[in-house]
Design a protein that fits this description.
two-stranded antiparallel sheet; 7 strands; 158 residues; 5-stranded mixed beta sheet
Protein backbone atom coordinates (compact mmCIF):
# COMPACT_ATOMS: atom_id res chain seq x y z
CA UNK A 1 0.00 0.00 0.00
CA UNK A 2 2.88 2.37 0.81
CA UNK A 3 4.34 1.77 -2.66
CA UNK A 4 1.04 2.67 -4.31
CA UNK A 5 0.69 5.86 -2.27
CA UNK A 6 4.32 6.83 -2.95
CA UNK A 7 3.91 6.14 -6.67
CA UNK A 8 0.73 8.19 -6.80
CA UNK A 9 2.38 11.06 -4.90
CA UNK A 10 5.34 11.06 -7.30
CA UNK A 11 3.03 11.02 -10.32
CA UNK A 12 0.90 13.89 -9.00
CA UNK A 13 4.04 15.82 -8.07
CA UNK A 14 5.39 15.41 -11.58
CA UNK A 15 2.25 17.02 -12.96
CA UNK A 16 3.14 20.22 -11.13
CA UNK A 17 6.92 20.10 -11.64
CA UNK A 18 8.51 22.98 -13.52
CA UNK A 19 9.27 22.07 -17.12
CA UNK A 20 12.87 21.57 -18.17
CA UNK A 21 13.93 24.49 -20.32
CA UNK A 22 16.13 23.96 -23.35
CA UNK A 23 19.54 25.62 -23.07
CA UNK A 24 20.45 28.55 -25.26
CA UNK A 25 22.80 27.65 -28.08
CA UNK A 26 24.22 29.25 -31.19
CA UNK A 27 25.81 27.38 -34.08
CA UNK A 28 26.43 27.55 -37.79
CA UNK A 29 25.08 24.84 -40.08
CA UNK A 30 27.23 23.15 -42.69
CA UNK A 31 25.61 25.45 -45.28
CA UNK A 32 26.58 28.58 -43.33
CA UNK A 33 23.19 29.35 -41.75
CA UNK A 34 23.32 30.77 -38.21
CA UNK A 35 20.95 28.94 -35.86
CA UNK A 36 20.12 29.50 -32.21
CA UNK A 37 17.47 28.58 -29.68
CA UNK A 38 16.41 32.24 -29.50
CA UNK A 39 16.04 32.31 -33.28
CA UNK A 40 13.93 29.19 -33.25
CA UNK A 41 11.77 30.46 -30.39
CA UNK A 42 11.16 33.70 -32.31
CA UNK A 43 9.39 31.65 -35.01
CA UNK A 44 6.77 30.47 -32.47
CA UNK A 45 7.19 26.91 -33.79
CA UNK A 46 8.35 23.74 -32.03
CA UNK A 47 11.92 22.60 -32.71
CA UNK A 48 13.29 19.10 -33.26
CA UNK A 49 16.94 18.81 -32.21
CA UNK A 50 18.68 15.59 -33.24
CA UNK A 51 22.06 14.65 -31.77
CA UNK A 52 24.00 12.48 -34.19
CA UNK A 53 27.45 11.30 -35.28
CA UNK A 54 28.64 10.39 -38.76
CA UNK A 55 29.81 6.94 -37.65
CA UNK A 56 26.68 6.00 -35.64
CA UNK A 57 24.70 3.03 -37.05
CA UNK A 58 21.55 3.90 -35.09
CA UNK A 59 21.76 7.49 -36.32
CA UNK A 60 22.01 6.20 -39.89
CA UNK A 61 18.70 4.37 -39.35
CA UNK A 62 17.08 7.64 -38.22
CA UNK A 63 18.42 9.91 -40.99
CA UNK A 64 15.92 8.82 -43.69
CA UNK A 65 12.97 9.29 -41.33
CA UNK A 66 14.16 12.72 -40.19
CA UNK A 67 14.77 13.66 -43.83
CA UNK A 68 11.23 12.60 -44.73
CA UNK A 69 9.49 14.45 -41.89
CA UNK A 70 11.66 17.50 -42.55
CA UNK A 71 10.31 17.69 -46.10
CA UNK A 72 6.74 17.45 -44.79
CA UNK A 73 6.94 19.61 -41.65
CA UNK A 74 9.70 22.17 -42.36
CA UNK A 75 7.20 25.03 -42.63
CA UNK A 76 5.63 24.21 -39.26
CA UNK A 77 8.57 22.82 -37.23
CA UNK A 78 12.20 23.94 -36.89
CA UNK A 79 14.81 21.22 -37.43
CA UNK A 80 18.49 20.97 -36.58
CA UNK A 81 20.82 18.00 -36.42
CA UNK A 82 23.90 18.51 -34.26
CA UNK A 83 26.86 16.18 -34.37
CA UNK A 84 28.32 15.28 -30.99
CA UNK A 85 31.67 14.32 -32.49
CA UNK A 86 34.24 17.13 -32.85
CA UNK A 87 35.84 15.25 -35.77
CA UNK A 88 32.57 15.60 -37.72
CA UNK A 89 33.65 18.76 -39.53
CA UNK A 90 31.47 20.65 -41.98
CA UNK A 91 33.31 18.84 -44.78
CA UNK A 92 32.63 15.40 -43.27
CA UNK A 93 28.94 16.19 -42.75
CA UNK A 94 28.57 17.79 -46.18
CA UNK A 95 29.86 14.59 -47.80
CA UNK A 96 27.52 12.55 -45.60
CA UNK A 97 24.54 14.74 -46.53
CA UNK A 98 25.36 14.44 -50.22
CA UNK A 99 25.84 10.66 -50.02
CA UNK A 100 22.50 10.12 -48.22
CA UNK A 101 20.61 13.04 -49.82
CA UNK A 102 20.00 14.64 -46.42
CA UNK A 103 18.38 18.07 -46.70
CA UNK A 104 17.68 19.09 -43.09
CA UNK A 105 19.99 21.62 -41.35
CA UNK A 106 23.10 20.05 -39.82
CA UNK A 107 25.72 21.43 -37.46
CA UNK A 108 29.31 20.12 -37.37
CA UNK A 109 30.64 18.41 -34.25
CA UNK A 110 29.72 20.40 -31.15
CA UNK A 111 29.68 18.21 -28.02
CA UNK A 112 29.11 21.25 -25.75
CA UNK A 113 25.55 21.64 -27.03
CA UNK A 114 24.92 17.96 -26.31
CA UNK A 115 26.19 18.36 -22.74
CA UNK A 116 24.13 21.53 -22.25
CA UNK A 117 21.00 19.61 -23.28
CA UNK A 118 21.78 16.83 -20.79
CA UNK A 119 22.19 14.35 -23.63
CA UNK A 120 24.65 11.54 -22.98
CA UNK A 121 24.99 9.94 -26.41
CA UNK A 122 24.30 10.19 -30.10
CA UNK A 123 21.01 9.09 -31.70
CA UNK A 124 19.04 11.26 -29.28
CA UNK A 125 15.95 13.14 -30.40
CA UNK A 126 14.85 16.18 -28.40
CA UNK A 127 11.61 18.10 -28.95
CA UNK A 128 11.40 21.69 -27.73
CA UNK A 129 8.07 23.52 -27.75
CA UNK A 130 7.66 27.14 -28.81
CA UNK A 131 8.11 28.27 -25.20
CA UNK A 132 11.54 26.64 -24.99
CA UNK A 133 10.44 23.69 -22.85
CA UNK A 134 11.85 20.24 -23.56
CA UNK A 135 8.80 18.06 -24.13
CA UNK A 136 10.53 14.90 -25.38
CA UNK A 137 13.98 13.37 -25.11
CA UNK A 138 14.69 9.83 -26.25
CA UNK A 139 17.75 7.95 -27.42
CA UNK A 140 17.61 5.25 -30.06
CA UNK A 141 15.95 4.34 -33.32
CA UNK A 142 12.64 5.99 -34.18
CA UNK A 143 10.60 5.00 -37.20
CA UNK A 144 9.02 7.38 -39.67
CA UNK A 145 5.72 6.76 -37.88
CA UNK A 146 7.35 7.61 -34.53
CA UNK A 147 8.69 10.91 -35.87
CA UNK A 148 5.38 11.74 -37.53
CA UNK A 149 3.49 11.14 -34.28
CA UNK A 150 6.07 13.13 -32.30
CA UNK A 151 5.71 16.13 -34.61
CA UNK A 152 1.91 15.88 -34.83
CA UNK A 153 1.76 15.77 -31.02
CA UNK A 154 4.13 18.74 -30.73
CA UNK A 155 2.01 20.78 -33.14
CA UNK A 156 -1.27 19.88 -31.46
CA UNK A 157 0.12 20.97 -28.06
CA UNK A 158 1.18 24.42 -29.28
Amino acid sequence: MKKIILGLALFIGSLFAAPTMAPQFEATTITGEKVSLDGYLATKKPTLVYFTASWCPTCAKNWPSINSVYKTYKDRVNFVSISIDPTDTAEVLSKLAKKHDLVYPSVAGNPKIMVDFGVTAQATTVMVNSKGEITYKERGHLTLEDYTKLLDDALSNE
